[in-house]
Write a structure and sequence with these properties.
By secondary structure, the protein is α/β, with parallel strands linked by helices. About 45% of the residues lie in helices and about 20% in strands. Strand 1, helix 1 and strand 2 form a beta-alpha-beta unit. The longest helix is centred in the C-terminal third of the chain and has 29 residues, at about 120-145.
Length: about 150
């Protein structure tokens, strides 16, 4: 399964110059805990980093810094790991596990943002697959009973 098939395509983004205060308001408005920081490059929306609600709390609020004067570029995770939409899901999972990240932007072959995939998205996909696999036995019994009539 390609990671692009299970990623969330409705992503909430911001620019590097967005203040932390504005980012927090965006998170609240859209009910998300992560913003992908993007820049427009050659007409494409290209991920530059990620900012989470935890980053805001731990880096800004816990240190008593002013969220209205700090930009997301100052606190975003700059070493950005992305997945190409055509990449195999298990390859992505392995890279996420190795780097210890819970969510990563998904991009197309040109680097343009396609979506975001989280550990929760992967769990949801795997749970659905396991449920469908469990139904094989039930279907097999039903077909067997029909064929014996």
């Amino acid at each position: 399964m390609q990671i692009g098939h299970i990623c969330t395509t409705n992503t909430i983004t911001c620019k590097p110059e967005t203040t932390v205060f504005e980012a927090a308001r965006m998170m609240r408005k859209h009910h998300v805990g992560t913003l992908i920081v993007v820049e427009e490059i050659n007409g494409m929306c290209v991920p530059q980093g990620i900012v989470t609600d935890r980053d805001i709390v731990v880096i800004v609020l816990a240190e008593g810094l002013d969220p209205k004067s700090i930009k997301v570029a100052d606190i975003m995770k700059a070493e950005l790991m992305t997945a190409i939409a055509t990449e195999d899901m298990f390859e992505t999972v392995e890279r996420m596990r190795y780097k210890g990240v819970r969510r990563i932007p998904v991009v197309d072959k040109h680097g343009a943002l396609v979506g975001i995939v989280s550990v929760d998205d992967i769990w949801k996909f795997l749970a659905k697959e396991v449920t469908e696999l469990a139904e094989v036995t039930t279907r097999q019994r039903s077909r067997e009973q029909l064929s014996r009539r």
